[in-house]
Amino acid sequence: NSKYYRIPKKKEPLQENEIHLTSKQDPVNFLKYAMFLFEKRNLPYIKFKASGSAIAGLINIAEILKKVVPG
């Protein structure tokens, strides 16, 4: 029995225009979902969240979206 214990973080629900990237999932899935949000839901912008090694995948997705999505 230790005097230290972990306090669980409260997860905030993501908004409709937010995508949280993880390094364990395929970045292509996030790219497809971002395209869906732009084309079908007509969102003006998408907010990406990533940390650690997922940041490199996020940059690649952002560069692809910049070329594919007009505006």
Overview of the molecule:
- The termini are far apart.
- This protein has helices at 27-39, 54-68; strands at residues 18-20, 47-49.
- It has a two-stranded parallel ribbon with strand order 1-2.
- It is 39% helix and 8% strand.
- Helix 1 runs parallel beside helix 2 (54-68).
- The longest helix is centred in the last third of the chain and has 15 residues, at 54-68.
- The protein contains two helices and two strands, in the order E-H-E-H.
- It is mainly alpha-helical and 71 residues long.
- The protein is elongated, with a radius of gyration of 16 Å.
- The mean pLDDT is 89.
Structural class: mainly alpha
- The overall average pLDDT, rounded, is 89
What percent of residues adopt helix (DSSP H or I)? 25-40%
Outline the low-pLDDT stretches.
none
From the spread of the alpha carbons, the general shape counts as elongated
Run of helices and strands: EHEH
* Strand coverage percent: 5-15%
Strand order of the biggest β-sheet: 1-2
Query: Largest sheet, if any?
Result: 2 strands, parallel
The first-to-last residue Cα distance is: 58 Å
Enumerate how many helices there are, as a single number. Answer: 2
Instruction: Give the beta-strand count.
Output: 2
Which value, in Å, is the CA radius of gyration?
16 Å
